[in-house]
Amino acid sequence: MKAVVLGATSGMGRAVARRLAERGDALFLLGLPLTELERSAGDLEQRGAASQNVGVAELDLADPRGFESALDKADRALGGIDTVIVTAGLFKTQDALEEDRDYLYRMLHVNFTATVLFCEAARKRLLAAGGGTLCVFSSVAGDRGRKPVVLYGATKAGLSHYLESLDHKYRAEGLRTITIKPGFVKTPMTEGLKAPPFAGDADGVAKQVVRAIDRGTPLVYAPAIWRYVMLVIRFLPRFVMRKIGF
């Protein structure tokens, strides 16, 4: 596999990249800051990434003007791209977002508009090369309108809708679109939040993600129990949703 990973410097993105490196896949990392990218690349090289040379390029997901240039660098370094993995995104609690309009604006832009624009750039590139895999992290927060994630969940609902539509439209042309919907996972992003009994860990999610990429599975809930949790939540009537805090 020749994979570009956006968001491999921490959390689930780092865990996915490590699993790919350990089995010898060729990787190119995108994100910020450069020092963290280089540190992550060194770690992956030690774990066995193909050619022992993991390339990096700075990319601010909030600035679509840099997307094509960053993908060009990855394309040249890898000698072609067959997989693009997007794990980057922003999160704050609902209360924090309601108080911080600047961060709210940035999160709305990054999690939906900018991510879709990056996926569009990747989609066109993969299709032009004959096909490939676009694997993108969304969230269970987008499955149903819920009080604790009004704003964050809205961005993920839109992203999930877009990714599902891509899979319907382009799978026959060779583009495999994979949507990852993590539930609560213990990462730096969720540090300080109360974890539910069925919380997952980054490496466990990464194992599911790599398996989905290999199989072309279009939708993955991680940990898997969240598929059943959200199935129940989706069918609860509105008057119940108004009363509960989940």
Brief account:
This protein has 246 residues and is α/β, with parallel strands linked by helices.
Could you explain how this protein is built, in words?
- This protein has 246 residues and is an alpha/beta fold.
- The protein has one domain (2-243): Rossmann fold.
- It is 50% helix and 17% strand.
- The protein contains nine helices and nine strands.
- The protein has helices spanning 11-22, 34-46, 67-78, 94-99, 101-128, 150-170, 202-215, 225-235, 238-243, and strands at residues 2-6, 26-31, 55-58, 83-86, 132-137, 175-182, 185-186, 200-201, 219-222.
- The strands form two sheets. A seven-stranded parallel β-sheet has the order 3-2-1-4-5-6-9, with helices on both faces. It has a two-stranded parallel ribbon with strand order 7-8.
- Helix 1 links the parallel strand 1 and strand 2 (26-31).
- Helix 1 (11-22) packs across helix 7.
- It is globular, with a radius of gyration of 18 Å.
- The relative contact order is 0.13.
